[in-house]
């Protein structure tokens, strides 16, 4: 390793680890970085993961490089804190995930046959994960589904776990029937029930929507991100058309903006 990993440019990973060590140095480090804990860094970790996904969705590969670096920094941050606590360091974490991948891919690193479908490999993967959960004394079917996951993603994972033991509707039609039922209950709650009961019914409806996505093989998070992007694109189209008329949305009304929305939508369809 170079004498000064920072300025002599040690290999990327070693240099990054040294940067973090110096940032966290209690005497000469950065006051902000020194104060950070697992809890304060966790929100940034989640945010950076979403920014990686955003760069991929935008197909911005240069931006993805930077976002991957930001996400890697989060792992370096957490492992620096854990090393200071005498728990484990970055190399321990890297070794742990390497061994996990080896253990979960006996058809690549062991003597199992690779002559099986991706679906069978997925089932084998889940079998190995179930065995690992048993070793961790996680006995319940839903044990180990992280509470901190985004709610929509956690709903999907909970439903997948339940489906493995047979607790699932047999067809998409059953889910759609349930969706209709929950929508009717939400309308009733809006008109007759308390705010807390309305929130509960709204949650039930979202939960069934996540289940419908699973049955249809749709990633609900990706679908909602797509809907968000479409709304953003079309509303920006409204703003552009209003600007061409010397107006802003505040100067317009719903009827005009709705007509412009339809125009933007029709233009998009012509481009497809």
Automatic annotation (TrEMBL):
SUPFAM superfamilies: all-alpha NTP pyrophosphatases. The keyword Hydrolase applies. It comes from the Bacteria. It comes from Aliishimia ponticola. One of its GO terms (molecular function) is ATP diphosphatase activity. Its EC number is 3.6.1.8. It is an enzyme of class 3 (hydrolase). InterPro entries: MazG-like_dom, NTP-PPase_MazG-like_C, NTP-PPase_MazG-like_N, NTP_PyrPHydrolase_MazG, PRib-ATP_PPHydrolase-like. Residues 36-109 form the NTP pyrophosphohydrolase MazG-like domain. The keyword Hydrolase applies. Belongs to the nucleoside triphosphate pyrophosphohydrolase family. It catalyses: ATP + H2O = AMP + diphosphate + H(+). Keywords: Hydrolase. One of its GO terms (biological process) is response to stress. This is Nucleoside triphosphate pyrophosphohydrolase. It holds the Pfam family MazG.
């Amino acid at each position: 390793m170079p004498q000064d990993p920072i300025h002599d440019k040690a290999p990327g990973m070693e240099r990054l680890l040294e940067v973090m060590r110096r940032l966290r140095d209690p005497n000469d480090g950065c006051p902000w970085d020194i104060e950070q804990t697992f809890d304060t860094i966790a929100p940034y970790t989640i945010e950076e993961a979403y920014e990686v996904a955003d760069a991929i969705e935008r197909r911005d590969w240069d931006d993805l490089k930077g976002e991957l670096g930001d996400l890697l920094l989060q792992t370096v941050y957490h492992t620096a804190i854990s090393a200071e606590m005498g728990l484990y360091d970055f190399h321990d974490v890297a070794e742990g995930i390497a061994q996990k991948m080896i253990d979960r891919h006996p058809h690549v690193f062991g003597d199992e046959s690779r002559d099986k479908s991706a679906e069978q490999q997925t089932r084998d993967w889940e079998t190995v994960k179930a065995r690992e959960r048993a070793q961790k004394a996680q006995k319940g079917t839903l044990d180990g589904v992280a509470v901190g996951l985004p709610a929509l993603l956690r709903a999907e994972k909970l439903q997948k776990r339940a489906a493995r033991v047979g607790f699932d509707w047999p067809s998409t039609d059953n889910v759609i029937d349930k969706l209709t039922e929950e929508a009717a209950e939400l309308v009733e709650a809006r008109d007759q029930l308390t705010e807390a009961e309305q929130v509960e019914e709204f949650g039930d409806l979202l939960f069934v929507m996540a289940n419908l996505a699973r049955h249809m093989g749709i990633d609900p998070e990706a679908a909602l991100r797509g809907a968000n992007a479409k709304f953003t694109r079309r509303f920006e189209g409204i703003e552009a058309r209003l600007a061409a008329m010397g107006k802003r949305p505040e100067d317009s009304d719903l009827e005009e903006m709705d007509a412009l929305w339809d125009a933007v939508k029709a233009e998009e369809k012509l481009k497809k």
